[in-house]
Each structure stands twice: as structure tokens, then as C-alpha cells.
Amino acid sequence: MAKNDKKSCPKKNFTIRERAKILERLENGERQVDLAKEFMVNKSTIATIYRRRENILKSKEALESCDGDSRKKRFRGTESSPLEIELIKWYQQQRDVGLRVTGINLKEKALQLNEKYEAHQRFQASSGWLDSFKKRWGVKCLSIQKEKKPTDYNISERFKKELVNLINLNNTNLDFIYNCDETGLDWKMLPNKNLSSNNEQFGGGLKKIKDRVTILACTNASGSHKIPLFVIGKYKEPKCFKKLTHLSIHYEYSTNQWMDRTLMLH
Question: Which Pfam families match (predicted)?
């Protein structure tokens, strides 16, 4: 191919999936020169892909085995590491049961797994690592609006039957079976609608402000032991508690008022 032809062909960095597809077409008998014209690259680019076919197919197989993204251009083996596989499985399990997972949760779990596998002594689970992890697995940070995840009634019914069988099998006293659930209480919040004139396209106004607490209720199955409510607020010392000497609840504070492992250990 002439030098002018090489300059006319822009350099293209194929993804692993695209390279595997090219290899498949080559195996089916298509010519390298025809594929080079189709993708507007030099013939040497197609030849290099064919020469590295073993590594490309291994990379694609490794990514597919751990549900990785084969649309990436390079494979460094991160997705197939024990730490990464167990972390993404843990994340998916948390989301499947409707639990919230934040970036902080992922970092903490990654540090635990790194210690478990003794993978890297200098591993810090930094913000850069977190961004790369989310990009590798297509994890997006979305605002939580409402609980829209439908309930899987089949799984719920099966769990209830298994629990009853387990209780009967072990003759478990109902006094020793506990259940807890959390809920949110917006005790002060601005209206979410605003009166607007005809020439306004949006109902403008101040930013939506609300004061919210999270409440955890827990009791045993017989109802003989009701644990005081666990309340999580935003402020360390709310003004309403200023003159109180005794609270009938257990109060903790958090900037986002979310229930997390640290607060539960208290």
C-alpha cells in the first residue's frame, strides 16, 4: 500500500468486542484487505488483530465469564480478579434486595476484600479507583426518588414458607425471633408545587428544603420485647433535646440521615 494510502486511513482503536468480530469474519473466509477497506484502516491493522487473535479471544472470554464490558479497548485482568468479582457480586446482591449502596459502601467493602485476599498492600480504594470501577461495570450514581422496584412475591412467599419450616424444625421460641424495618419521616418540608404565571415555563422558586429523620423499629415475633425506636437525624444536638434528661428513643446523627453499618454497630 502506498504511503499516501496510509495517510488517508485514520488510526482506529477497536474495542475487544470489535476485534473478536473481525476475527470471526476472518475465520469465515473474508479477506483482510476487504475488512481494511470497510473499516477504513490499513491492512496492517487487520493483520495485527489476526496475529494477536489468541490474546484477544482470551480477553473476551474472561470478560464474558465475569459479566465484564467487552466494549473496552484494553483488558488488564482487573475484572477477573477475585476482589473485583466478589465486590460486584456483593453490589448486585445488595441491589437485588433493594438496599442502598453508596460510593463509601463500595470503598469499605473493597478494603475488606483486599485485606481478605491480601491483594495489594498499597490499595486505598481511592475516588479514582471508584470512578474506574463504576465505569468498568456500568454502575451509575442516580438520585433516589421513590421505591419503584417491584416486589417479587414468589420469592417472598417462598422465604416465608422456608422460615416457618425452619422455626418448626428447630422448635424456636417466638420470643427469640426479631424483625426490624426502617422508614423515613419528613417532619418539615416546603410544598413541591408553586403558583406560576402564564408566561412562566417552569414553576420557579426556592430549592426544595426538608427536615427528615430515619426511624428503625424492631420487636420480637411474640411482641413481648419492643426495642426503643432508633432515630437518625441530621444534627448532633437538636434544639428540641436541649432540656431533656431522658429520651425514650435511641438517637444518632448523620449528615444524610441514612442507616449504615457504623450506626448499627452503636
Answer: CENP-B_N, DDE_1, HTH_Tnp_Tc5
Helices (H) and strands (E) in the chain, counts: 10, 4
What are the phi and psi torsion angles at 220 (to 5°)?
A: -85, 170
What pTM did the predictor assign?
0.39
CATH assignment, 82-137: 1.10.10.60
Residue 166 to residues 159, 173, 175, Cα–Cα distance (Å) = 10, 12, 15
Q: What would the DSSP string read from start to end of 11-41? A: -----HHHHHHHHHHHHTT--HHHHHHHHT-
Task: Determine which helix (DSSP H) or strand (DSSP E) holds 93, and give its type and residue range.
Answer: helix 82-96
* Spatial distance between the Cα atoms of 251 and 229, rounded to a whole number of angstroms: 8
pLDDT tens sequence across 107-157: 888 898 888 877 677 888 888 888 888 877 777 654 444 455 555 667 778
Contact 249/230 with Cβ under 8 angstroms? yes
Q: 211: number of CA atoms within 13 Å, CB side?
A: 7
